[in-house]
Specification:
Rossmann fold; N-(1-d-carboxylethyl)-l-norvaline Dehydrogenase, domain 2; three-stranded mixed sheet; 9 strands; globular
Length: 296
């Protein structure tokens, strides 16, 4: 295991192979890196074996001998639990790319863990969903020391199309805070799209007439089109699930409250997502919060 900050990342352990993590692991393997992967539900990781990824039973097996660990799990507690399980096989100097959306509060214990284990941590949440993840075109928001950037780039440049460095210290939370600001906007669009199309249904307005009315103008946007099409076709295969969106809405609300900012729209979106999840839409795309508009 190398502790030289300029050494190449020849082997990468990916902890968490959901929608995003699986695409990352696959792209890293195709780029010629030695990739080992762990997922809490092993069956979800098994398809990666066909791409040359070594699927392991435990986080400890995954990180054993890896130069770099990439975490892509649901939230901060899930990340910390996985890293604690891996602790005995984590060598000092290991590069840790923490790419999950955890929020600034949950980042703090992760940074402490890295310090206790002498890990080189970079906070690097990503923008993008399934399609850009599969194409290696995610936008990475990263905070970490200058001396780690070349080393981190050997992985980040494979999974992302662009890395935006926003700070020298992962502990500053700069990357995680920026991610929540962006996600606040994403959630606003998802919630607004669903509610607007629900109103169209309620008022007996053809939703495509709405899209035609805003088409090509300042009120139009690709994300509106993409999310609307999922509802109109009934194909709600997730790129960002209702459950994950609800978690992110909670993080946005908590961060806003801690900063003394009222997040009225985020709070309302979180409630819509909660109702949709309760209705059984948790595993569908986030725009399925649309269904929360209807009673019964």
């Amino acid at each position: 295991m190398a502790d030289n900050n300029s050494s190449p990342a020849a082997s990468v352990a990916v902890l968490g192979t959901g929608i995003m993590g699986a695409a990352m692991a696959r792209n890293l393997a195709r780029a010629g890196l030695d990739v080992r992967a762990w997922n809490r539900t092993r069956a979800k990781a098994e398809p990666l074996a066909a791409d040359g990824v070594r699927v392991t039973d435990t986080p400890a097996e995954a990180v054993d001998g890896a130069d770099t660990v990439l975490t892509m799990l649901l939230d901060g507690p899930a990340v910390l639990d996985a890293m604690r399980q891996a602790a005995l096989r984590l060598a000092p100097g290991t590069l840790w790319l923490q790419m999950s959306t955890v929020g600034p509060a949950a980042l703090e214990p992760l940074v402490r863990f890295a310090g206790e284990r002498d890990l080189r941590i970079v906070d690097a949440p990503v923008l993008g969903t399934k399609a850009p993840a599969e194409k290696g075109q995610l936008i990475v928001l990263a905070a970490g020391p200058q001396e780690l950037r070349e080393r981190a780039g050997r992985v980040l440049d494979v999974v992302g199309g662009r890395t935006q460095w926003v700070g020298e210290d992962a502990a500053s939370g700069a990357a995680s805070r920026l991610k929540l600001v962006v996600n606040s906007w994403v959630l606003t669009i998802i919630g607004g799209t669903g509610e607007t199309l629900a109103l169209a249904k309620g008022l007996d307005v053809d939703p495509r007439a709405f899209l035609e009315a805003v088409g090509g103008g300042s009120l139009d946007m690709p994300y509106l089109r993409m999310k609307s099409e999922l509802l109109l076709t009934g194909d709600l295969e997730p790129s960002f699930t209702v459950s994950a969106a609800r978690k992110d809405a909670r993080l946005v609300n908590e961060a806003g409250e801690a900063a003394g900012v009222r997040m009225d729209l985020a709070a309302a979106t979180a409630e819509r997502l909660r109702r949709a999840e309760e209705q059984g839409h948790g595993g569908e795309d986030g725009v399925a919060a649309y269904f929360a508009s209807f009673v019964g």
